[in-house]
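Re: that backbone. Tokens:
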């Protein structure tokens, strides 16, 4: 009778010893792991030049009248932004969030050693809030190891490294609190990871690591009204987007051309459905892929390529995984009957008027933003006008709002492409020759100006 308690005591001591040893090993190895990972994390610094639309009278009509009569003295405003990112490849590709660089005129990537590099945008995807940047350097870069977020378990330890509130590289730890989170306002294409690792403003775009040192997520958002609630894009989903951006500069997704909604218990009851599973088609868009099929408003999509649609958000997620031109097979419910329908997916149409006629390429070098406008003398031609001059720029003495740029370094400038091409060839500190047409009070003058780039 005495041997049994001793036996269990031994098991208890052994368990406590192993648990303590595991915790000790984890605690002692964490600083070493963090030291290895930190050099793969970068700080993203952005500059944005925007026009201040100040109201004079409170009435837009009278405001415009006063501007035309007395001139527009409003000055563009320069603002700074901060975020995080991580090095994806040895040749200088950097991953961050789209919202970090969305409105940036100028982007810099700062490595953990303090070295700073200008960054070019390779591609962006607003639907998943991801962006891919590129820096040019001969420096040896520490590239992240990409993990498999599909294998993450709730309760698994994770490490967040980023640049919160501009303090520089900061490390926090936590666990995976939940998976498959939907966040209203951040699109329907991402099943977010939830973590209690502390995230703050500036962490956006930074990596979420597991304790193997593999990146498993891209930190993206925090719950505004909660503490210890942060969200990250799963890397297994993000990696497909990153590869598309690297190869094509954009992401091509399949598109059905339908609007779907949630099946509420009340709708389910009205339609005599057995459950709320599926996506209810509320609209079939004219000339969309679905319009060319037999899909109708009021149909309930139950399966896509054999995958069950539980909630209406599942449908766009599954469709977005497929490329345009792919034929999909749907199982729909119509008037209590199941019907099979095939649809060939199309490209998601770009919103009208999204092609920018502005250029920020001169913002950093010369403190100007230019706009392409029609030539008043020949409607088939265009010209480049200075639409904003940064107040903080030293070049306010050279450029005036309304100047027409005719040439840069003896090269004709007639549109956005020719202006951007000229900007790319100008190095920092280089004197550049501009031919400018300027409207004075009583006359129009054309003059050359030699201006040193920042």
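Recovered sequence:
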């Amino acid at each position: 009778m005495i041997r049994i308690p001793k036996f269990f005591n031994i098991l208890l001591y052994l368990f406590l010893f192993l648990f303590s040893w595991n915790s000790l090993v984890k605690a002692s190895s964490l600083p070493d792991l963090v030291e290895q990972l930190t050099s793969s994390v970068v700080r993203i610094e952005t500059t944005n030049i925007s026009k201040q639309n100040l109201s004079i009278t409170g009435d837009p009509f009278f405001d415009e009248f006063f501007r035309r009569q007395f001139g527009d003295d409003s000055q563009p405003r320069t603002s700074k932004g901060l975020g995080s990112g991580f090095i994806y490849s040895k040749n200088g590709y950097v991953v961050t969030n789209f919202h970090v660089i969305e409105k940036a005129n100028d982007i810099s990537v700062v490595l953990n050693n303090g070295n700073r590099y200008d960054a070019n945008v390779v591609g962006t995807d607003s639907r998943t809030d991801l962006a891919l940047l590129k820096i040019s350097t001969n420096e040896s870069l520490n590239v992240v190891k990409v993990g498999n977020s599909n294998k993450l378990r709730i309760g698994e330890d994770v490490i967040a490294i980023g640049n919160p509130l501009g303090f520089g590289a900061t490390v926090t730890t936590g666990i995976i609190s939940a998976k498959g989170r939907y966040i209203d306002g951040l699109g329907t294409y991402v099943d977010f990871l939830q973590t209690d690792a502390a995230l703050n403003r500036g962490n956006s775009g930074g990596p979420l690591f597991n304790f193997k040192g593999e990146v498993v997520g891209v930190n993206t958002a925090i719950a505004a009204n909660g503490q210890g609630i942060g969200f990250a894009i799963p890397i297994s989903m993000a990696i497909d987007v990153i590869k598309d951006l690297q190869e094509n500069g954009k992401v091509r997704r399949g598109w059905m051309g339908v609007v779907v909604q949630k099946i509420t218990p009340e709708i389910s009851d009205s339609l005599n459905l057995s459950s709320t599973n599926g996506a209810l088609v509320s609209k079939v868009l004219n000339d969309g892929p679905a319009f060319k099929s037999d899909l109708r408003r009021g149909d309930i999509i139950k399966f896509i390529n054999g995958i069950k649609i539980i909630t209406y958000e599942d449908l766009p997620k599954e469709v977005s995984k497929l490329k345009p031109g792919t034929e999909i097979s749907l199982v729909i419910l119509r008037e209590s009957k199941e019907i099979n329908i095939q649809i060939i997916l199309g490209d998601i149409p770009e919103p009208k008027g999204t092609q920018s006629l502005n250029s920020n390429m001169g913002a950093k070098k010369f403190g100007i933003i230019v706009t392409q406008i029609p030539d008043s003398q020949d409607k088939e031609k265009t010209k480049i006008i200075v639409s904003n001059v940064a107040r903080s720029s030293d070049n306010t003495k050279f450029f005036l709002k309304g100047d027409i740029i005719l040439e840069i370094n003896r090269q004709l400038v007639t549109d956005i492409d020719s202006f951007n091409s000229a900007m790319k060839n100008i190095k920092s500190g280089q004197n550049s020759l501009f031919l400018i047409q300027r409207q004075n009070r009583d006359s129009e003058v054309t003059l050359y100006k030699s201006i040193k780039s920042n």
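The first helix runs from residue 3 to 38. Residues 16-21, 54-66 have pLDDT under 50 and may be disordered.
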